[in-house]
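Hi R.,

Here's the chain you asked about this morning:
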Amino acid sequence: MKTLFAKTVRSNWGFFLLACGLIVGPRLNAGGNSPAKVMNVDFGPLTGPSQKAGPAATGQTSADFWNYYSRDNGNGGYRTSGGLANMKWADGKVSDVGLSVANAPGCWGNGAADPMYNYYLYPLGPGNLTVVVTNLPPGAYDFYLYGHGDHDNQNGVYQLSSGDQDEGTQSTAATGTGWKSPTWQVGQQYVVFPNVPVARHEPVTITALRSPGGVALISGMQIAQTSAGVFSPVLLLAVIFVLLAAILLGWLWRGKRAHGPATRVAG
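And here is the predicted structure, written out as tokens:
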């Protein structure tokens, strides 16, 4: 039986590799100029919804949806912490992804034309600002973080960790006026933490640290999936199904070749 199985797999390896490539390939390369999945978050005042639509430094279409987190509590006051549940992807589909924000009751504008980038949240007292993303599907993601104050030295300084893994610290421009440009430039208005691995049930924590200008702040965030987790039960079942289908197709193909076309006998 083992010999027959091994012979069958060897005989059908072409079918098997092609089918697996069609399933696994798109999951391993979900990124590119237009990521397969993008989640956008706009941080600002008032009750929303976000005035931002479409892409920022990344995105999918001109109608991309932006989730909105407001520091306002709806009763004329400011909330120090809060969150969002079941955030939507850029295409409007509801997800299980959640967001929590801490130490962000302050809000100010920097004069930018982009409605997401114009406003930023910050602490009114000591300490840093934190954003925690939960329930992201397992995979790898690019995290785009936007933020700059209304002075040249009030840049955004961000530390990111996925679970217990520290992904380092990056900052937007601390000098010059490039942060005012309407053209998105990495290191000016935003930073990117590329290919951050996210395991199942592991949170991603963004800490906005205080800049040389003394402000910890954030304006917006984009989460772009670069690859999906390939070792999932659904994918495993799909690969098994494809293997069986490839074996069946191989048997049929070889059987057809063995018998050849029907031959007519002249009467």
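One quick note: The chain has two domains: 2-28+231-259, 38-228.

Cheers,
M.
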